[in-house]
Amino acid sequence: MNTDKVILKPLFQKKADPLTLLLKDIFSDNRNAMSYLGALSIGLGFSQADSAFAEEDVEEVVVTASKREANLQDLPMAVQAITSEELEAKNISDFNDIANLVPSITVDDSGSGNSYFYVRGVSDGGFGNRAGAQASTALYIDEQPLSTIGGNPDLHVYDIERVEILTGPQGTLYGSSSQAGTVRIITKKPNPDATELGFDVEYGDVHDGTPDRSLEAFVNLPLGDSAALRLSAYDLHSGGWLDNVATTQTFTYLGTHSNSDYIELEDDYNSSDKEGVRLRFSNEFDNGLNLDISFLQQEYFSNGSWESDVAEGARKVSRYTPETFADDFEQMSLTLSGPLTDNIDFTFTSSMFDRDIAYTYDYTQYVYYYGYDYYAAYYYDYDYYASTDPRVFYTQFDKYERSSNEFRIQSVTDSGYQWILGAFYETNDHEYQTFYDFTGQLASSITVVDNRWWGQDNIRDDEQKAFFGEVTVPVSDKTDLTVGFRKYETENEFFAQDGYFGYYEDAPTGWVGRTNLYKFGDDGVAPKFNLAHRPNDNLLVYGTYSEGFRPSGINRTTGRTAELVPDTYTSDLLRNLEFGWKSSLADGKVTFNGLVYSMNWEDYQSTRYVYNLLTVAYVDNVGMATVNGAELTSYFNISDSLSMSLMANINDPTMDDDIVDAGGTILGNKGNTLAYVPEKRLIFTLDKDFTLGGKPAYFSLDSSYTGRRWADETNTTPMQSYSMMNVRTGMEFGSGVSGEIFINNANDTRPVLGLYDDFGDQRLTSSQPRVIGLRIRYKY
User: Fold this and answer.
1) Angle at CA of residue 136, ends 634 and 188, nearest 5°
2) Mean pLDDT, all residues of the chain
């Protein structure tokens, strides 16, 4: 069974109308103008009499969010799909670009590969620590989950069939970490019917920065009548725009030091490079079986920091040591699918995901804040030849190994009684090492390994088993009832080592090291109930109760006041009740969908770092929260060459309890708003086709608004609202060649995408400045 099929109308088609017909298409006469306004008012819930539109309907999109093909408008669940045509036309290249088109997604950004995203305001306020809780929203590529603790992989988006965003708990079909939603990136399947190839070349001038450039290419090769191979590759360079500027710091014991004494200061120092290749093979056998094998490899490296220091001014940092970030991963999958009987299909998928991260981070501010230059001063007093350099840098090494296997069978019928039944097994291993090292040589006469002040070496192994199923029963000709479940079991094992001056056991210096092994398990059932009713061919209404969960875990609880910190934390549960509708108006020229939801988040997990309690971060079930909100989506085909969309997400994420740390300190009051989440996000898009000099051309505009958020649960540090706008225009030159001029972040906004207090110094992550660029594309 083909699960990657998409039926749609190309976003931009060759048209015969000239550019001067732009206004005529909207207001060619009074009747068309009133028709447009009438449809808009219907879409927004007001009444309007007769309407007449142009000939083109809003395109039909087939998705596989329910693990079977379904028309997006016929699916009684909240799904937004970004098609391959839209991804290409809007030059979507990474997850932040996706988020700019999805109002229900909020990004907490600390740079590529080090970011989180939240759906529907379900934010635990965590700060990306590797010992933290699992993500509340899952990221998939094809059939495999990719979400990792401490930051999601930043997959480059190229040669992608579509992106599906499933909002609300998806625990039944997608399991843990699909607590608030799931984002699925679906790659293009090889086409056995035609040879295809193409490439894209791009150059971008970054405002007050160094240029961007990229090269992307793909080729599709048929291998006989039923087999094909598809290869895509990319090589990208992102220019820097943050300046590392001079600063001085007066340390407690070692006096005043300037960063210019230790590091070369430079402008635009946060550049990055990303390259990757994806290979996919598929074959359909004579008996109907389909074999699909894919391999993906990506390498990323960046210099400098993506966080600016608020005290230094816009797009400036002041660092004492070099900072780098390397993120390499490989993903492999095998899928075998086909008929078991005339009425039953099966799908088996086995996937592996390996990810290696290595990064360095300037931690000198930590030394200054706590007066830890004492250690360098102490060893200088002990040994005249020791260094008086107060700087400390932080080094992190992560190795993720994730293996997922799923087998499912399902009914073949497109309507009426339908069912799906499956089993899932996954191992998720994470080994991470963290070292805090002084840059200067400590006393050689003291037994200190590699100038190490403190280090840890931890291995976390998670295992999950699950059985799941859904059945849809027709209650009447117009009403269907769906019931689903997921029975899951998790096992966690955590081997932890940490200690001072290079030792995990007791050090010769007298400091105590520690080595511990922790084990914990958990289980549960996540149910789902859905009732869908179609009064007529143009309206679907539905109600859903669903649950999402994150698995339990283990804390490292040795050390000072460790008795106050819980040894384990349990699964947290998100209970969701939503009522929605999907409608087609004005003879199919307008689509207006929406829903309202109320979600109760029980015993939600949150990652904490309380220095006075524990030397490492820990996770706690901190309390209850309620998230009420609404999602609204409307698409308008004003004419056969002009379309627009309006989308909104309204959120009220409220804490139902005081948030108290393990030491009894109140971190957030009942009634406060969950961290990082805006009360509203709005998105507007406009796409116009025209001809220029007899050649097909287009114009595209995307604009988003994100409301004010709070940097943590105390609700004392605001993250101000912002608007972003991207504009592009292009044309086809013939023989498969096209070109476009684009302006990303056209208003040169400096949005606050991430904000935290780094030991008395506020650090802020923002977007790239305005980029004016040129893209040339060729397709055969």
Assistant:
1) 60
2) 86
Tell whether the model's pLDDT for residue 299 goes beyond 70.
yes
Spatial distance between the Cα atoms of 18 and 693, rounded to a whole number of angstroms: 8
Block residue for tokens 């040879």? 195
Name the residue with higher pLDDT: 724 or 758.
Answer: 724
Name the percent of the chain lying above pLDDT 90. 60
> Which whole-number Å values give the CA distances from 722 to 391, 719, 745, 750, in the listed order?
36, 9, 11, 8
Would you tell me how many other CB atoms lie within 10 Å of the CB of residue 631?
A: 24
Q: Which amino acid is at 589?
A: K
HSE, CB side, 13 Å, CA atoms: give it for residue 51: 24
Residue carrying the six token digits 């207006």: 592
Task: Name residues whose C-beta falls within 8 Å of residue 711's C-beta, 6 or more positions apart in sequence.
Answer: 675, 676, 717, 718, 719, 755, 756
Q: What is the pLDDT of residue 381?
A: 61
Question: Per the structure block, which two tokens stand in for 757?
Answer: 């207090």
Q: Which residues contact 190 (CB under 8 A, 6 or more apart)?
A: 220, 221, 227, 228, 229, 230, 280, 281, 282
> CA angle at residue 512 from 507 to 515, to 5 degrees?
100
Distance CA 410, CA 429 (A): 31
CA dist 77 and 152 (Å) reads 25
Distances (CA, A) of 109 to 33, 112, 281, 431, 439: 42, 8, 34, 23, 28
**pLDDT the model gives residue 438:** 86
- CA angle in degrees (0–180, nearest 5) for 393-399-403: 160
Please tell me which residue, 336 or 13, carries the higher pLDDT value: 336
Question: Residue 467's CB: how many other CB atoms inside 10 A?
Answer: 14
Q: Which amino acid is at 368?
A: Y
* Tokens 């093979």 sit on residue: 281
Q: CB of 616 within 8 A of CB of 563?
A: no
- Least Cα distance to 329 among 594, 179, 113, 134 occurs for 113
d(C-alpha 252, C-alpha 364), whole Å? 13
- The beta-strand segments (E) located in 268-417 are 272-284, 290-303, 307-309, 316-317, 324-339, 344-362, 392-411
pLDDT at 286 over 60: yes
pLDDT at 373: 78
> What is the per-residue DSSP string for 521-535?
EEEEEEEEEEEEEEE
Quote the radius of gyration of the chain (alpha carbons, Å): 27
Label the pairing between strands 324-339 and 290-303.
antiparallel
Q: Which of 78, 79, 82 is nearest to 90 (CA)?
A: 82
Structure tokens at 442: 């400590």
Nearest CA among 780, 738, 612 for reference residue 12: 738
Reduced 3-state DSSP string for 492-504: EEEEEEEEECCCC
- Tokens for 220? 């599709």
User: DSSP H helical segments within 138-293, as ranges?
Assistant: 171-174
Q: How confident is residue 127, by pLDDT bands cut at 50, 70 and 90?
A: low
Residues 321 and 11: their CA atoms lie apart, in Å, by 48
Does residue 260 surpass a pLDDT of 60? yes
Q: Cβ contacts of residue 154 below 8 Å, gap of 6+?
A: 94, 95, 112, 113, 115, 274, 300, 327
In the sheet with 79-83, reading across from the earlier edge strand, the strands are 79-83, 160-167, 181-187, 137-141, 144-145
Residue 668 token pair = 């957030």
Taking CA atoms, 486 is separated from 79, 178, 467, 470, in Å, by 20, 12, 6, 9
